[in-house]
Predict the structure.
Amino acid sequence: MTELPAPGVRSEVGRLRTVMLHRPGNELRRLTPRNNDALLFDGLPWVDRAQAEHDAFADALRGRGVEVLYLSELLTETLHDPEARQVAIDHTMTDLRLGDTLRRYLVDLAADQGPDELAEIMMAGLRNDEISNTGSLVAALHAPDDFLIDPLPNLLFTRDSSVWVGDHVTITALAMPARRRETQLTELIYQFHPRFRGVDRIHGWDKEFLEGGDVLALGEGVLAVGVGERTRPAGAERLARTAFVEGLAHTVLAVPIDQDRATMHLDTICTMVDRDAMVMYPNVAHRLGAVTIKLDEDGDLVIEPMEPFLDAAARAMGIDRLRLIDTGLDPVTAEREQWDDGNNTLAIEPRVAIAYERNVETNERLAAAGIEVIAISGSELGSGRGGPRCMSCPISRDSL
Ligand SMILES: NC(=[NH2+])NCCC[C@H](N)C(=O)O
């Protein structure tokens, strides 16, 4: 039997061995023009096509020797464990909106389901017209198509709901109400799935907001954490302190980003494509700043004054210069391609990255800079505003 690659991620570009994806499922069929904004989608994806695009993404990874794990399969396998089932049901049903009668009904209903059906309820949610008479005022007064358990269409973006820092896994705390429940699922998987037995977990879904799309492993022991619409300063501070104390990092850069949908995570602005090179949204490249955080001998955080991100990053990484791949685009093209996740690439080894094909100009500039671009189509996947990096959670990468 061949050994499974040991879990652990210490860079953005080390050879990718294992990744967790989520093939979009019925949770996407829940999106309507009335709920898509709250559920953080800019349109209504054609689900069959989104699945086909996602299968092509997974094939591109497998074609390069990457092991693809699916969140839904891990979840279903996890739900074979009676203790995990109990925790899953308790967490899913804590919502105060339900009231005691409906909660009791739903707990019983959930307890009767097999692992597949229970996983499906946890991911795709439950509508009022999908259950029968409950004797609950809450159910009686809700419209038939109201959700009693909300669907999780953003599970697709596995980047955000957990992030490996060295050999520890971070259970993140997602800022938007539509995504909060996602990290209860990732916590369940990492806590109970046999594959992850013995793995140390840090942070937690009940902690300060911290999203994986904001966390970049710039190099061994160096993290950059975007702080903006999603990750809050307190979330970045807790991650920094924990990473120092656990010996997972020696330097953390906190990087303020605009609190806008277009720049919701640091990885919508920049991603690494080589040991010492990034592709970055040109409209912000030279005004991005960073605050360097370290730990002193007394165990106190040392927080340095703000300086240009590229300088702070190079110093922390111990290199002369962090190369910026200048996409040299005019500001309008740059803005369009940034919106379509042109800067959100997934490196599978140094100088090889997966990117959306639609960002023609950004991809040309990457190729001209010596980066092999594996282009995938994302016309439907992109309607949730996330690219290849957002749609992947690396579990194992080789050290550089
Ligand atoms: N790492 C990322 N950039 N993730 C993108 C997440 C997109 C998702 N619809 C959201 O709004 O949360």
The mean pLDDT is 96. The domain at 54-70+153-397 is CATH 3.75.10.10 (L-arginine/glycine Amidinotransferase; Chain A). Residues 21 and 70 are 5 Å apart (CA to CA). The pocket of arginine is lined by residues 40, 154, 157, 159-160, 176, 179, 213, 264-265, 267-268, 384-386, 390 (CB under 6 Å).
